[in-house]
Design brief:
InterPro entries: CGS1/2 (IPR044639), Cys/Met-Metab_PyrdxlP-dep_enz (IPR000277), Cys_met_metab_PP (IPR054542), PyrdxlP-dep_Trfase (IPR015424), PyrdxlP-dep_Trfase_major (IPR015421), PyrdxlP-dep_Trfase_small (IPR015422). The protein is α/β, with parallel strands linked by helices. It folds into two domains: about 260 residues, Aspartate Aminotransferase, domain 2; about 170 residues, Aspartate Aminotransferase, domain 1 (Alpha-Beta Complex). The protein is built from 20 helices and 20 strands. The strands form six sheets. A seven-stranded mixed β-sheet has the order 5-11-10-9-8-6-7, with helices on both faces. Strands 12-13-20-15-14 form a five-stranded mixed β-sheet. A two-stranded antiparallel sheet has the order 1-2. Strand 8, helix 11 and strand 9 form a beta-alpha-beta unit. The radius of gyration is 29 Å and the shape is globular.
């Protein structure tokens, strides 16, 4: 294994044990602001080929590899644990020697004597014309944030998704292009005094895995740069982000406002769990600004102009599954005038199509599982906004848990690098397919904000640059007809998510509003559910589906048996069009 951070001067014929030896040290994050990151010194790497070219025998090379200074094994394990990805070839960075016992060979003496010089080394290498600062060795790479100002030269969201949080500003010291995965559950302190300094805020550290991770910080800063936010908190799922945010910002005994059309699990938490904390809720139509104002005025504390029981207006925009759009700028001004905060769940829009914070919202939330991750292989959620609000949410998050695994954070980082390419394709395909579906005789109605027929089309045009990759529509038929259409599709998967490279289709009446039960029946008995269109029989057990809500209750939320939600992936438009048309021909 070659140590990439060290450089040697080799003679033409043999290795000189007294030759110049440099070792790239760890950065000092204990005193510098998070944004002021030292950068790496460049060094020529020692490889097997270069040593053999210089006349080194295989015996000499083995000696070079294995004759490390005392304490190297411990140092190596520390660096590997902090800085190496476990999903590829480990890249060892920043190996600094200890001040232990005296070296017992000329080679070790040369290595040990280089430590003092390495600690003060100043790099002269430039990166794209920018000077790079030197590294100071304090033996810690526990924490370090990137400075979003270093990506101000990037003029487009596409470039930001690739480079923000990484290019010229990454808290992990490595010369790898990709961000390493730092797998650790805790961070150590060299001495008790360093721990005391940390407790008294003179030293920076994540301290424990639930409180932060260098890989996760890169994902957070990439999202912050894209949203134009001061801070971002990334968590284990979108629902985790939603619930922690609600419990933080809506006090016990308080009041909040939300909209009728939303993700069902979010509605369940708001309607079933928040009341246990004494929190009441007003539910309005997404377009009902007058209803929002009435709720704000009704719940205002009598006689106290500065007090307001309504502390939060939380809504999706576009909403799930009907893609309703809220006038973010208008509702933000209204809520702020009454002392309430505004949080927008922009999962269906993505940060590329809609900038909720720029439109006036206080917070923007995403299920990063969807478009941001984009590959149907990771669960994550994030919330972005002012440092003050995110810090409040982060405090509760540290108590409750729901921490994102660093391997998952790496998948989010990787997924975001193609976000702009994927979303462009999905925007285009969805809009074109929405027009095809709207003109088809076997489709009753199409819900897509890019269509003039959508009730909030004008609002969407004003606040969105693209209309997203999801189209909802109603097939001209009943439950059985719709099932036949869905089952006839060949490209999309029947699954409960959206936003990935692969197209996904689901029937909300079944996917989100039906529940499975196990009941025991007599052998060879046939059972027909009166609420279903299937005749089911079995030898011993029947897996019986029944509606979680009655049809009347589902209709209150607009969920009909013939509703289909189609998330278009990055497949070719003509292939998707042909597949949808052939499936419609079967009904």
């Amino acid at each position: 294994m070659a140590v990439s951070s060290c450089s040697f001067t080799l003679s033409p014929r043999a290795f000189n044990p007294y030759s110049s030896f440099e070792c790239r040290p760890d950065p000092d994050f204990s005193s510098a602001p998070i944004g002021d990151k030292p950068r790496l010194a460049s060094s020529r790497r020692v490889t097997a080929s270069s040593l053999y070219a210089g006349g080194i025998s295989s015996r000499g090379l083995s000696s070079l590899i294995f004759r490390f200074p005392p304490n190297f094994v411990r140092q190596l394990s520390i660096k590997a644990r902090r800085n190496c990805s476990n999903i590829g070839v480990a890249q060892i960075v920043a190996a600094s020697w200890s001040n232990g016992s005296a070296p017992d060979s000329p080679f070790l003496a040369a290595a040990a004597s280089a430590q003092a010089a390495a600690a003060a080394v100043t790099a002269t290498v430039t990166n794209d014309g920018a000077a790079v600062e030197g590294c100071i060795d304090n033996g810690s790479v526990q924490i370090g944030g990137s400075d979003n100002s270093t990506t101000k030269f990037l003029s487009s969201d596409g470039s930001i998704t690739v480079h923000a949080g990484e290019r010229l500003g990454r808290g992990i010291v490595t010369d790898a292009i990709t961000t390493p995965v730092v797998n650790t559950s805790a961070y150590f302190f060299k001495k008790t005094q360093e721990l005391i300094d940390f407790k008294e805020k003179r030293h920076q550290s994540f301290e424990y895995g639930r409180y932060g991770n260098p890989t996760t910080v890169v994902a957070e800063e990439k999202i912050s740069a894209l949203e134009g936010a001061e801070s971002t908190l990334i968590m284990a799922s979108g629902m985790c982000a939603s619930t922690v945010m609600l419990m933080t910002l809506v006090p016990a005994g308080g009041h909040m406002v939300t909209t009728t059309d939303c993700y069902r699990k979010t509605r369940m938490f708001i309607e079933n769990f928040l009341p246990k904390m004494g929190i009441s809720v007003t539910v309005i139509d997404p377009a009902d600004v007058d209803g929002l104002e009435a709720a704000l005025n009704k719940n205002k504390v009598s006689g106290i102009e500065s007090g307001c029981l309504v502390s939060l207006f939380f809504t999706e925009s576009p909403t799930n599954p009907f893609l309703r759009c809220v006038d973010i700028e208008r509702v933000s001004k209204l809520c702020h005038s009454k002392g309430a905060l505004v949080c927008i769940d922009g999962t269906f829009a993505t940060p590329l199509n809609q900038k909720a914070l720029a439109l006036g919202a206080d917070l923007v939330l995403h299920s990063a599982t969807k478009f941001i991750g984009g590959h149907n292989d990771v669960l994550a959620g994030c919330i972005s906004g002012p440092e003050k609000l995110i810090t409040e949410i982060r405090t509760l998050h540290h108590v409750l848990g729901g921490t994102l695994n660093p391997n998952a954070a790496y998948l989010i980082i990787r997924g975001m690098k193609t976000l702009h390419l994927r979303v462009q394709q999905q925007n285009s395909t969805a809009l074109r397919m929405a027009k095809v579906l709207e003109a088809h005789p076997r489709v009753r109605r199409v819900y897509y904000p890019g269509l003039p027929s959508h009730p909030e089309h004008e609002i969407a045009k004003q606040q969105m640059t693209g209309f997203g990759g999801v189209v909802s529509f109603e097939v001209d038929g009943d439950l059985t007809t719709t099932i036949k259409f869905v089952d006839a599709l060949k490209i999309p998967y029947i699954a409960p998510s959206f936003g990935g490279c692969e197209s996904i289709v689901d029937q909300p009446a079944i996917m989100s509003y039906w529940q499975q039960l196990n009941i025991c029946i007599k052998r060879n008995e046939t059972v027909i559910d009166p609420n279903m269109h299937y005749k089911l029989s079995t030898n011993c057990h029947l897996m019986l589906l029944h509606r979680d809500l009655s049809q009347a209750e589902r209709r209150k939320y607009g969920i009909e048996d013939n509703l289909v939600r189609f998330s278009f992936g990055v497949e070719d438009f003509e292939d998707l069009k042909a597949d949808v048309l052939q499936a419609l021909e079967t009904i």
